[in-house]
Design a protein that fits this description.
The protein contains 5 helices and 5 strands. It is of the alpha+beta class. The chain folds into 2 domains: 76 residues, Ubiquitin-like (UB roll); 76 residues, [2Fe-2S]-binding domain (DNA polymerase, domain 1, Orthogonal Bundle), CATH 1.10.150.
């Protein structure tokens, strides 16, 4: 066992883990943050995406020990538990950007990173290209793309009220 210390959703965490422990395992099994999903075990589907130091990372591809001192944000930390949804979450809700919801946490965190990198005015082509590593087996992506565009605009406006426009 080896100790790893990092910040998860704004809280300092120290855990003793097997050196082979993946970040997704640390989140789900050790910290009980089950919003991060395991869909494929091969880094193809994007259901396990979290933000590490602000960047989208497939948590099934990185060892927990590699993240010593890192800042990890899972879907549970995107918005306060007792507060309003993050503008991107609200946009997914308002624009029907989910069906079963399994891929949704990874899609939302990928979208937040996409806005950070690409800006608030995202066209459909850019969004579809950026979602290449995220698979949804339920939808035709139309409402996901619509939700991400709306969420990006709402993030610029500073709130969820603009997410449905």
């Amino acid at each position: 066992m080896a100790a790893v210390s990092l910040k998860v959703n704004g809280k300092s965490v120290t855990a003793d883990v097997d050196p082979r422990t993946l970040l997704v395992q640390l989140l789900r099994e050790n910290l009980r943050l089950t919003g991060t999903h395991v869909g494929c075990d091969t880094s193809q589907c994007g259901a396990c995406v979290v933000l590490v130091n602000g960047k989208a990372v497939k948590s099934c591809t990185v060892l927990a020990l590699q993240l010593e001192g890192a800042d990890v944000l899972s879907i549970e930390g995107l918005a306060p538990a007792d507060g309003p949804l993050h503008p991107m979450q609200e946009a997914f809700r308002e624009n029907h950007g989910l069906q079963c919801g399994y891929c949704t946490p990874g899609m939302i965190l990928t979208a937040v990173d996409m806005v950070r990198r690409k800006g608030h005015n995202l066209d459909d082509k850019t969004i579809r290209e950026e979602l290449e590593g995220n698979i949804c087996r339920c939808t035709g992506y139309h409402n996901i793309v619509k939700a991400i565009a709306a969420g990006a605009r709402a993030m610029q406006a500073g709130g969820a009220a603009k997410a449905a426009e």
